[in-house]
Specification:
Largest sheet: 5 strands, antiparallel
Structural class: alpha+beta
Shape: flat
Number of domains: 5
Radius of gyration: 35 Å
Helix content: 40-55%
Number of helices: 26
Oligomer: single chain
CATH topology of the largest domain: Hypothetical protein af1432
Number of strands: 18
Strand content: 5-15%
CATH class of the largest domain: Mainly Alpha
Distance between the termini: 56 Å
């Protein structure tokens, strides 16, 4: 007979992000635990709200499945002595499996004789098994941070206040955190109180009666609908960042939406600050009019009595008024000085205790930006914008607004730059130099922005590696992997083409005076290897086979965009018939190539087929070299290489490479070496499989 299980853990208010993770964990771990306990079920759902985690299982088997299995034990020669008497190994194995020694069986596996125990176990009632399963579930949840309370030893995200464990209408004797489960739960903190749940299948309905939407999906739908309705009542649209929305959903159990107002004069404050104050600090949702202009209204989702929404909103209005007044004051104070003045204050901020001040970093980034602009032959205006933006890029970090609203770094720099009369290209590059901030983030919008971004990231990467604090395993405290991917993405997708080895060397040059013991060559090689690793990951993530990536990167990785073009050509070409010809030609040559023979064969020692292959190689070196270095047409270069299949086949069919005459043998090997060198200019074809 199938049954329904309810297990609820009642807690003090759980923070939003850990609650999402706990709901996911509870469902996944419960499914595994029930499987391990041999209890089948139809559906399993996990629910969560600020004051509870709940598990509901429907169609749960009333009894465990019976267990019948054969367990392998020690080898026969270890289990029995020469007279056939059981040894301690046999006795211990039998005892561990709950069978008699004389019940052990013998059999053969992989040519060896072993003893086996046949274990038969009758399934127990679900009500007997579940308490232990549920207690383990509650105790095994992982929390980034946990706590102890009172005199107990249990650790949990917040103090546990009640437990509910029901199998249909039967209370299960589950014990956790010093509590014993019953059928009494608690409804909404302000709108309800203790409640009894008659049966497990009534859980969600009972929660609704207690003014609790326990299902996060239902709660999210309710919040979204109410926000949209509130905005529509104003003839406006709510600004709903997904991060803020997700957090709000897990801050309420019975959501109610209200509309607040703030003083219109605060609309003169930069919009980003107004939105940041509302969203990140207060979890309000700004409202914008039909033309996208910010309105003097906001939407708040509260967890109180809907009848008291007016009073609750008034309290929020007082809070946001104070926050925006502070923001306006900070902006006014900052604008009293041009952005240039804040650059000098960067000397008072430590970038890294071993790498000097933020002012020193800003100077290095400015110099590196200038070098990169020259390396990419940037247009004069873009180069000028980039260098000026690099000079000012970190200045806003010491302004009042950014000290208070740290997430607005760059944004306020852009605002203050424009207020100081800087060119739009400079202001845009200041805000964009933090991009890309994560995988999939937008790139800087201009070449100037990308140059400053690359210089900033390169400076940090080489500096941290220079002091021996690069990433190790999963530890990457300075997010260097993310920065490296950002640099590579701008080079590959943003069109910023420069020699990465030279860029690394230029960045390291800025640390010569800071780090007297710096070995630029050694550190540069380490940093380049680090970039190569990130580039390989990026290319594999884009769908290229590992052997294609390894083959091309073995000879070309200083220009990531060029590397991508080579791999793209190789990946497409190797699936064609011409690609197969190319592979055969390479392998026939590679099997006999001998570096000791050199790659300058003598014509006077050649026969007709040798001459034909040498002529084909001369022509290929000319054409392939032009296609690769001038035209960058790698598809055509591969096609030209594949055309060598015929002359190579004729060579091997008519010429004995390993001739007894040492001069002829060495000359023929030199021809093959010359052929191998032609392939090596494109990729290391020896790394290709299949």
């Amino acid at each position: 007979m199938s049954r329904t299980l309810l297990f609820e853990i009642g807690v003090e208010e759980v923070p939003s992000a850990p609650l999402y993770d706990a709901v996911s964990q509870l469902k996944e771990r419960a499914a595994k635990a029930l499987g391990d306990a041999r209890l089948g079920y139809d559906t399993i759902e996990a629910y969560g709200s600020p004051r509870r985690l709940a598990l509901v299982v429907t169609g749960l088997a009333g009894r465990q499945d019976d267990l019948s299995l054969t367990v392998k034990g020690p080898a026969v020669k270890a289990a029995f002595d020469a007279e056939g008497n059981p040894t301690k190994a046999a006795e211990g194995f039998a005892r561990s499996r709950g069978v008699a020694v004389d019940a052990l069986e013998q059999g053969e596996i992989d040519g060896g004789q072993y003893v086996f125990a046949r274990v038969e176990e009758q399934g127990r009632d679900a009500a007997e098994v579940l308490p232990g399963v549920l207690e383990a579930l509650a105790g095994d949840l992982d929390w980034a941070k946990s706590m102890r309370w009172g005199s107990g030893t249990t650790r949990f995200i917040r103090p546990v206040r009640w437990l509910v464990a029901l199998l249909d209408d039967e209370v299960l004797p589950v014990r956790f955190a010093g509590l014993e489960a019953g059928r009494t739960t608690s409804g909404h903190r302000f709108l309800s109180g203790p409640m009894e749940i008659g049966a497990a299948g009534e859980y969600l309905d009972a929660m609704c009666r207690g003014h609790v939407l326990a299902d996060p999906a239902e709660r999210a739908e309710t919040v979204r609908r109410q926000i949209d309705e509130a905005a529509a009542s104003l003839g406006a649209t709510a600004v709903v960042p997904e991060k803020t929305f997700a957090e709000v959903v897990n801050l309420v159990e019975f959501p109610t939406v209200g509309i607040g107002r703030f003083d219109e004069r605060f609309l003169a404050v930069p919009r980003e600050i107004v939105e940041e104050a509302m969203e990140s600090h207060q979890r309000y949702f700004p409202v914008e009019g039909p033309d996208g202009e910010l309105l003097d209204r906001f939407i708040v989702v509260h967890n109180g009595d809907p009848a008291r929404t007016g009073t609750i909103v008034a309290g929020h209005e007082r809070v946001i008024r104070a926050r925006l007044a502070d923001a306006a004051f900070f902006v006014d104070e900052d604008l009293a000085h041009p952005l240039e003045e804040y650059v000098q204050r960067l000397e008072t901020i430590v970038f890294h205790e071993k790498l000097g001040s933020l002012g020193a970093k800003a100077a290095r980034v400015e110099a590196l930006t200038r070098a990169l602009a020259e390396a990419v032959d940037a247009p004069a205006d873009e180069a000028a914008y980039a260098v000026r933006a690099a000079h000012l890029a970190k200045a806003d970090l010491v302004t009042h607004a950014v000290v208070e609203f740290t997430s607005l770094q760059g944004v306020m720099g852009m605002r203050y730059a424009l207020a100081a009369g800087e060119a739009e290209g400079v202001a845009e590059a200041i805000v964009d130099h933090y991009r890309p901030r994560f995988a999939g983030d937008a790139l800087p919008r201009s070449l100037a922005g990308m140059l400053v971004s690359i210089a900033d990231k390169l400076d940090t990467i080489v500096g941290i590696f220079a002091i021996g604090q690069g990433p190790t395993g999963s530890a990457d405290p300075y997010a260097l992997r993310r920065s490296a991917i950002g640099v590579l993405t701008m080079m590959v997708d943003g069109g910023v083409r420069f020699d990465l080895d030279r860029g690394i060397a230029a960045a390291l040059a800025g640390y010569v005076d800071v780090l007297p013991d710096l070995d630029p060559n050694e550190t540069g090689a380490t940093v380049k290897s680090f970039f190569d690793g990130r580039l390989a990951v990026m290319l594999k993530d884009r769908g290229f086979a590992y052997d294609e990536v390894d083959a091309v990167m073995a000879v070309a990785s200083a220009d990531p965009a060029d590397t991508l073009r080579r791999i793209s050509a190789l990946a497409a070409f190797r699936t064609t018939e011409a690609g197969a010809d190319l592979s055969v030609a390479f392998r026939r040559a590679a099997n006999l190539a001998d570096p000791a023979a050199g790659d300058e064969p003598a014509r006077e020692l050649m026969g007709p087929q040798e001459d034909a292959l040498a002529d084909a190689l001369d022509l290929a070196y000319r054409d392939v070299g032009r296609l690769m270095t001038v035209e960058r047409d790698y598809d055509a270069a591969l096609a030209a290489l594949a055309e060598l299949r015929g002359p190579v086949d004729d060579f091997f069919e008519t010429v004995l490479v390993m001739d007894e005459d040492e001069r002829l043998r060495t000359n023929r090997l030199a021809i093959l070496n010359r052929l191998g060198g032609l392939f090596a200019d494109f990729a290391d074809f020896g790394k290709l499989t299949g």
